[in-house]
Amino acid sequence: MSSSCPVPAPISSEIDMGGVDPSSPPAPATTVRATVVQASTVFYDTPATLGKAEKLLAEAAALGSQLIVFPEAFIGGYPRGLNFADRTAKGKESFRKYHAAAIDVPGPEVERLAALAGKHKVYLVMGVIERDGYTLYCTVIFFDPQGRYLGKHRKLMPTALERLVWGFGDGSTIPVFDTSIGKLGSVICWENKMPLMRTAMYAKGIQIYCAPTADPNATWQSSMVHIAHEGGCFVLSANQFCRRSDYPPPPEYVVSGNDDDHSPDSVVCAGGSVIVSPFGTVLAGPNYEGEGLITAELDLGDIARAKFMFDVVGHYSRPDVLSLVVKDHRASPVTFASTEQASMP
User: Fold this and answer.
1) In what helix (H) or strand (E) does residue 141 lie, and over which residues does it extend?
2) pLDDT tens, position by position, for the chain (345 residues)?
3) Which position among 59, 72, 130, 162 bears the catalytic label?
4) Is 155 a catalytic residue?
5) Partners of 127 in the beta sheet?
6) Measured between alpha carbons, how far is 29 from 206 in angstroms, rounded to an integer?
7) Which of these is catalytic: 138, 189, 210, 233?
């Protein structure tokens, strides 16, 4: 699929979402219009993917959205079909190409995304494959409406065969940003099944919980509803909708689980992007129909209303019995003594 492919009309919530003036100056919000993007990477073509992201971002901003969330690994691509257990020349070349499609954080692609967030005056949450030397990370990066890069979250625990190609994040990149639209953070795909990870985010006061994913299964919807209800927060989950034509053709590239169906229109990932309220109510989605923009208005007052009954790290906690320690320092495999001494007062 080229970056110029048309995207179907936005799929919006059935609630009355009203008008939001995107040119209004930033101020503490009581309601937030948010959009999750469901669309596919242009695999092995990062410039084309960035061009596609730019068009989708402009469309979402035109809806008056103040927050726009993209799927896991949107830039760089989710490696369906890549066999990183293959130590032959073909496997090594596959890694070289995947490494080349990843981006440096910070780097020129990050600067471009920051400029787009500033141009459209939106908060932007983007899933990328981050290149750090010759190690790749599944990462989410954050931007504000002033065009500033805020920071990143590296996936702590890659799932199954992802561990053959992605590095492991550490506790230094699990931020929650205090923004004009609320406290914003992200947990990626099956990290969301880690109770202690969720608890750490709740303890940081997360209000808008972004959950980019690659999981289109029905059980994922149950997880998103549960997390919203458990955390008393809004959950925004963005997934890619991919067809076989979004990946290189066979036999160069064979999509796992789809080996017998190489028709261009065969669905590789069915999406399921969704927005859920702190009461566990689905506000928009899930979309299994195709690429699209899924939009809803978030009433931030619902957070207090939900936590009246259950505040998981507040009045419903028992720190005298159960507690959690989060090691939020950077874990480095190498420390140079001279650097340590130079940093001492």
Assistant:
1) strand 135-143
2) 333 444 444 444 433 334 445 555 555 669 999 999 999 999 999 999 999 999 999 999 999 999 999 999 999 999 887 777 778 888 888 899 999 999 999 999 999 999 999 999 999 999 999 999 999 999 999 999 999 999 999 999 999 888 888 999 999 999 999 999 999 999 999 999 999 999 999 999 999 999 999 999 999 999 999 999 999 999 999 999 999 888 888 777 777 655 566 688 889 899 999 999 999 999 999 999 999 999 999 999 999 999 999 899 999 888 989 999 989 899 888 888 887 666 666
3) 72
4) yes
5) 140
6) 15
7) 189
Catalytic residue among 109, 155, 233, 291: 155
User: Does residue 210 carry a catalytic annotation?
Assistant: no
Half-sphere exposure of 35 (CA within 13 A, CB side): 25
Residue with tokens 């590296």: 154
Q: State yes or no: is 183 an active-site residue.
A: no
Task: Tell me if the pTM is above 0.70.
Answer: yes
Enter the DSSP assignment of 239.
Answer: B
DSSP string over 253-271: ---TT-TT---TT-EEEE-
SS3 of residue 29 by DSSP: coil
